[in-house]
Amino acid sequence: MYKNLVTAVVPTLVAACFSLSVSPAFSQSPAPVRAPLKIGFVYVTPVTEAGWVRQHEEGRKAVELALGDKVKTTYVENVAEGADAERVIRDLASQGNQLIFTPSFGYMEPTLKVAKDFPNVKFESITGYKTAANVAVANARYYEGRYLAGIAAGRLASSAGYVAGFPIPEVIQGINAFTLGMRSVNPRATVKVVWLGAWFDPPREREAAMSLFNQGVEVIAFHTGSTAVMSAAQERGKLAIAYHSDMRKFAPDAQVLAITHQWGNYYTRRAQAVLDGSWKNGALWGGVKEGMIRVDSFGPKVPKKVADEVLARQRDIAAGKLQPFKARTAMLDNQGREVLAAGKTLSDEQILGMNFLVQGVQGKLSK
């Protein structure tokens, strides 16, 4: 999620390099290691009750539950991207951790640097796109959950707001998928975007949400790291889409549903692979089908028929029957230009390099 790169070059880099992420190819692995396997996790924010880091912490706990005394895990929280991340990752490797998960895009380069000095340690760069002999990458198709959330939002409202961190492809994918989902059931629906220029800044997240509500939006979504947008919706009596985690504790009346990230199964499989000597580097870009993205935790204001519809479409995505970026009619950007002909589907490479906003989005890609 957290990506501190120059946003002007990110789409090109991702399109050029993250094509690896859709490949199941892996390289040779060494012999198994003796248990307990020491595993380290690095978190970009404090461990809070909900959000990006919370879901990775739940993943860590899932590894412990599944593998028991075969593993010993530890984590370091609130680690800034950059030099501080390199120091922490290096410390974890020096302390004998044989598998290290680094779930933040800004950890990618520090992970690669440390990996060169610790060739016998396995690293998992989560949301990264560069692999090495001992570095694997993984990410999730978050946009699939966004499309499903858009269906629910479109059944409940005609105007939505979206608090977004930075205009990188992952965020743009989410905005577009959410809008397409809304307009699939409510063709005149609009989505107004506010760019925050930050991933985790609760006061500014709340301020942005309040500004959107003041402009008349009925439901709000976000791609930032705290629960502030949910709390703002609860305060204003509006509706909101939770992201990363179930956030009904913070917005019991406002939550429409939650787009949850599920890392436990992936983390457990990768730890087991190190234990039995089958770990290989490579890349995975998984979504609903792989169990990495799920829409659930519907709120009290969502009619059962709407929840049932969303869950049915979720099953369709899992079965490959529904693709959010398939154009039923010609897909236009919000300047009226055709970006995809009717009946065509965006390729993974095109999705990964996405740099336009679809028709219905009110806003521009900030520089």
Q: What can be said about this structure in brief?
A:
The protein has 367 residues and is α/β, with parallel strands linked by helices.
> Within the largest sheet, what's the order of strands?
12-10-9-8-6-7-15
Number of helices: 11
Radius of gyration: 20 Å
CATH superfamily of the largest domain: Response regulator
Mean pLDDT: 91
Strand content: 15-25%
The total of beta strands comes to 15
The appropriate CATH architecture of the largest domain is 3-Layer(aba) Sandwich
Order of helices and strands: HEHEHEHEEHEHEHEHEEHEEHEEHE
CATH topology label of the largest domain: Rossmann fold
Number of domains: 2
- What would you call the shape? globular
Could you characterize the architecture of this molecule?
The model is unreliable at 2-28 (pLDDT under 50). The two termini are 19 Å apart. It is built from eleven helices and 15 strands. The chain has two domains: 10-141 and 262-286, Response regulator (Rossmann fold, 3-Layer(aba) Sandwich), CATH 3.40.50; 142-261 and 294-362, Rossmann fold (3-Layer(aba) Sandwich). α2 links the parallel β1 and β2 (71-76). With 367 residues, it is α/β, with parallel strands linked by helices. The chain has helices spanning 10-17, 52-67, 83-94, 108-117, 142-156, 169-185, 202-214, 228-236, 264-276, 304-318, 348-352, and strands at 37-42, 71-76, 99-102, 122-126, 135-140, 159-164, 190-195, 219-223, 239-244, 255-261, 283-286, 293-296, 331-332, 338-340, 361-362. The strands form three sheets. The protein has a seven-stranded mixed sheet with strand order 12-10-9-8-6-7-15, with helices on both faces.
